[in-house]
Amino acid sequence: MATASQRVFIESLPDFVDKEVALRGWVCRMRVLGKTTFVVLKDCSGEVQCVAAPESIKEHHLKLEDAVEIVGRVRRDARAKSGYELDILEVRVLNRSGQNLPFNSFSNLDSVGPETLIEYRPLAVRNEVIGNVFRVQAALLRFLREFLTQRRFTEIITSKLVASGTEGGTNLFEVKYFDRVAYLAQSPQFYKEHGVAGFERVFETGHVYRAEPHATSRHLTEYYSLDLEVGFIDGPEDVIQLERELLTYIFDRVNKDCASLLSLYRKQPLPSMLEVPCWEFEKCVELLKERFNRTDLTYDLDPEAERQLCQLAEKDTGISAVFVVGFPLSGRPFYTAPRGTTGAANSFDLLFQGVEITTGGQRLHRREDLEKALRGRGIDPTNFESHLRMFDLGMPPHGGFAIGLERLTAQILNLPNIRQATLYPRDRTKLTP
Ligand code: AMO
Fold first, then answer.
1. CA of residue 48 to ligand 1 center, whole Å
2. How does pLDDT run across 352-399, given as a tens digit for each residue?
3. Among residues 122, 144, 177, 319, which is most buried (max CB within 10 A)?
4. 142-167 residue pLDDT tens
């Protein structure tokens, strides 16, 4: 009978050679070969093979995905992948897995349908390949925070229950809020602009909500928005340069820290974004006409045009990415600053590997300009008084952008559908799990 041993992580077994330890984890593979049973155990730090005589553990009826504690003695073994094995002294089943699971998390899941992988999310992410999507996603978030904190940005947390939309359009979710109607925030746009008046540089990461009626491979009704806003800028080019530097930092850190996770999904490391070009919208429309015979685009780009522009940029620079600046002002939200007097907006999109991952730009920072823009859209500015008031507080010229985290993750890992980069995707039909 083993003495009560302290639980250690599998990764630290080299420190316990010839000692008795307790491991906790899931049974991920099992083989019974004549006189020996092999049980491969996995915890959050790694995997190790544990061995026992079949009779000594038969009574436990171990099976794949069971959560167990195994007490045993650590042995160096040159034949083992990790260099170590555990001789089993005692097994304790912490919880048995179900009898009819639709897949085994330690097998190749290529043939398991995407819906099943979502219905059984924890089992799917126990799989190394699928789990890595969300490990990379967490790393993106970590490195974003790291960079922005170094650049004097203050992280803010703002309300997702709001009285009005910020982005225009009709895709607002209504919430019954006692005796009136509230909405779920489409973006922290107003609050991050207020943040500039208080802190000069702010960022926020959090869920935002869009009542997108169409199921597409790039739209969710709830997505995680990486927002920032910066004061005292000269124009959108300052913000574009900031995004080049931010993404280059994040990609470089991911290349270094997550090299093995990344290699399962892409052949090349993530590129430096410092040389990503910035093209005027007008020029893009001409290029698309000239090179792809696209005569149907005037006010905006469509997904096909985004792919085509990335192709052209890749030919020029070797990187499948391009900033497009100067979209028609009429198609952009009321807070957008104009680009000169030609009807263009000082706002931009970043297209990355064929998909828009960012929108940003310079904002109007004077109350009278905002009021004029609202009136121009047939909106009474008094409806926005609680927002407009902040522009009387010495609001500096400012701008910012928002990156959709799931889209960024999907593009980095070459995933064809945004749902594969979302733990619990929400769309028109999906509210569980
Ligand atoms: P926009 O509405 O373009 O801009 O959104 C910014 C980025 O968010 C992501 N995104 C989405 N991701 C998943 N599902 C959706 N339904 C969805 N909609 C948008 C995209 C997009 O590029 N306030 C501005 C940002 C700013 O100007 O700072 C805004 O929200 O990656």
1. 43
2. 999 999 999 999 999 999 999 999 999 999 999 999 999 999 999 999
3. 144
4. 999 999 999 999 999 999 999 988 88
Instruction: Decide if 209 contacts 185 (C-beta within 8 A).
Output: yes
Neighbouring residues of 176: CB distance < 8 A, sequence distance ≥ 6: 182
Nearest residue to 200 (alpha-carbon basis) of 381, 3, 38, 398:
398
Q: Which protein residue has the closest C-alpha to ligand 1 atom 8? A: 404
Which run of H or E residues covers position 280?
A: strand 278-280
For ligand 1, mutation pick of 187, 208, 348 (most atoms within 8 Å of CB): 187
Q: What is the number of the ligand 1 atom nearest to the C-alpha of 227?
A: 28
Helix (H, G, I), strand (E, B) or coil at 140: helix
- For the CA of 356, the nearest atom of ligand 1: 22
**How far is Cα 302 from Cα 355, in angstroms, rounded to an integer?**
10
Calculate how far, in angstroms, residue 347's C-alpha sits from the geometric centre of ligand 1.
Answer: 13
Q: Tokens standing for 199?
A: 């802190």
Whole-number Å distance, alpha carbon 192 to ligand 1 midpoint, is 14
The two structure tokens encoding residue 115 = 């819906």
Q: Whose CA is closest to atom 17 on ligand 1?
A: 219
- The pick from 160, 217, 225 for probing ligand 1's pocket by mutation, whose C-beta has the most ligand atoms within 8 angstroms, reads 225
Which residues approach ligand 1 with their CB closer than 6 A?
167, 187, 189, 210, 212, 219-220, 223, 225, 356-361, 400-404, 406-407, 418
Output b/e per residue, 50-64; b: 16+ Cβ within 10 A.
bbbeeeebeebebeb
Residue identifier of the C-alpha nearest atom 3 of ligand 1: 359
* Residues forming a β-bridge with 321: 352
Residues in the chain: 433
For residue 168, what pLDDT band results from cuts at 50, 70 and 90? confident
Centre a 10 Å sphere on the Cβ of residue 17 and count the other Cβ atoms it contains. 12
Helix ranges (DSSP H) in 160-302: 189-199, 236-257, 259-263, 281-292
